[in-house]
Amino acid sequence: MAAQRDYYEVLGVARDADAKAIKDAFRALARQYHPDVNKQPGAEEKFKEIAGAYAVLSDPDKRKAYDDRGFAGVAGFTPDELFRDIDFGDLLGGLGFELGGAGGGGLFERFFGGRRRGPPRGRDLEVVLEIPLSRVVTGGEEQVSYARSSPCGACRGTGAKDGTKLHRCAACGGSGTKAQESRRREPAGEVLIRNLTPCADCAGRGEIVDEVCSTCRGRRTVEETRSLSVKIPVGVEEGMILRVPGHGMESEVPGGVAGDLLVVVRTAPDARFERHDADLWRRERVTVPEAVLGVQRTIPTLDGDVELTIPAGTQPDVVLRLAGKGVPVLGGRTRGDLYVGVEVVIPDHPSKRERALYEELGVLEAQRAHHPKDAQPKPRRRSVKEHAP
After folding, report:
1. If you average pLDDT over each of 68-72, 156-160, 165-169, 208-212, which comes out highest?
2. Which residues pair with 341 in a beta bridge?
3. Cα separation of 317 and 93, whole Å?
């Protein structure tokens, strides 16, 4: 088992760092390692470590206890107590992903294997949202439609036909659970072990339906299509997950909270470019004479067309770079580049006139090969050339 790392080391801050420096360090690391963004193995464990360090160092009392006694000073806190007063939604909402509301309940459930007291929450739903490259540049609102279950209006979520009654389950006494007890001997004496399981007679509801609702067939929910607006951050990354709390499946237990909607953002195909992180790539085909003599081309970018000079003597597969013409990096502070790969097209069925010219050119090349002193020095090949539009 790896040794626990110092919290200041985890966040990469000095021991006298102020609250703003600690917060900024946490946000930067959360953007890098949050599992909704980073799919690499170990990212979730890294994020847990970062969140735990922030929970201690952002609280003056916990920080003092840690400074005085090290890990022993904060060993008595449960995850619930550590994250109780932290609003991760406010901390990370601007980065494009959500962890739940005030108190960090979403984080507590997702990453620390626990659940706060109360009825179980519903399942999360996942939907893919395709957006154009222009939305990656500007950010903004996008509509997403999805199917989810909601309480049946005909029976008001009871599962019983209107006008019929619900009866308390006799098997579990209305608790929805059944207890199984066993005893085990320990050195200190006999121990009673009590396990609770959902009641099979009422499926854990605690109530029995005499006649089921014909609309939902006793399921208490019906499926419907919903639409909502989600905020796309500038520079949203490919495959990034936007979490919308409370818009997932309804809880199967009355009084339980709904799950979350997970919106997986994908970039829609674009005939002009291929996206690679914040960079864009495109292919530009030129003829042999254009590669030899150079040519001016009008190239599309996300900011409008620009004139690109393909210089004389361009070799096949040379890549020209247009700096800052890609998409923004998440947060919008910098932009990637546009790379134009030059593809020299060789005619496969030249005309008689073209063949004659190529044969003449071949003779000239052969003469130059036999008289190298008359040959011009070859320009040094560069795989990537800068270009300022």
Report:
1. 68-72
2. 283, 319
3. 42
SS (H, E, C) the chain: CCCCCCHHHHHCCCCCCCHHHHHHHHHHHHHHHCCCCCCCCCHHHHHHHHHHHHHHHCCHHHHHHHHHHHHHHHCCCCHHHHHCCCCHHHHHHHHCCCCCCCCCHHHHHHHCCCCCCCCCCCCCEEEEEEECHHHHHHCEEEEEEEEEEEECCCCCCCCECCCCCEEECCCCCCCCEEEEEEEEEECCEEEEEEEEEECCCCCCCCEEECCECCCCCCCCEEEEEEEEEEEECCCCCCCCEEEECCCCCCCCCCCCCCCCEEEEEEECCCCCCEEECCEEEEEEEEEHHHHHHCEEEEECCCCCCEEEEECCCCCCCCEEEECCCCCECCCCCCECCEEEEEEEECCCCCCHHHHHHHHHHHHHHHHHHHCHHHCCCCCCCCCEEEECC
Q: What is the mean pLDDT of residues 123-152?
A: 89
Radius of gyration of the chain (CA): 32
**Residue 46, burial from CB neighbour count under 10 angstroms (0-12, 13-18, 19+):** middle
Residue that is written with structure tokens 């600690």 in the block: 22
Which domains can be identified in the chain, with CATH numbers? 1-88+101-117 (1.10.287.110), 166-209 (no CATH), 274-387 (2.60.260.20)
pLDDT tens, residue by residue, 185-239: 666 666 556 666 778 777 667 777 767 787 787 677 777 888 999 999 899 989 8
Pairing of β 384-387 and β 319-322? parallel
Separation in Å, CA 214 to CA 157, 204, 218, 245: 12, 21, 7, 31
Cβ–Cβ < 8 Å for 359, 300 = no
Mean pLDDT of the 167-175 span: 76
The answer to whether 176 and 251 are in contact (CB under 8 A) is no
Could you tell me the strand order of the sheet in which 241-244 lies? 125-131, 261-267, 241-244
Alpha carbon distance 299, 278 (integer Å): 18
Please list the residues that pair with 223 across neighbouring strands. Answer: 149
Among 134-138, 217-221, 256-260, 381-385, where is mean pLDDT lowest? 381-385
Judged on CB neighbours under 10 Å (0-12, 13-18, 19+), 68 is: exposed
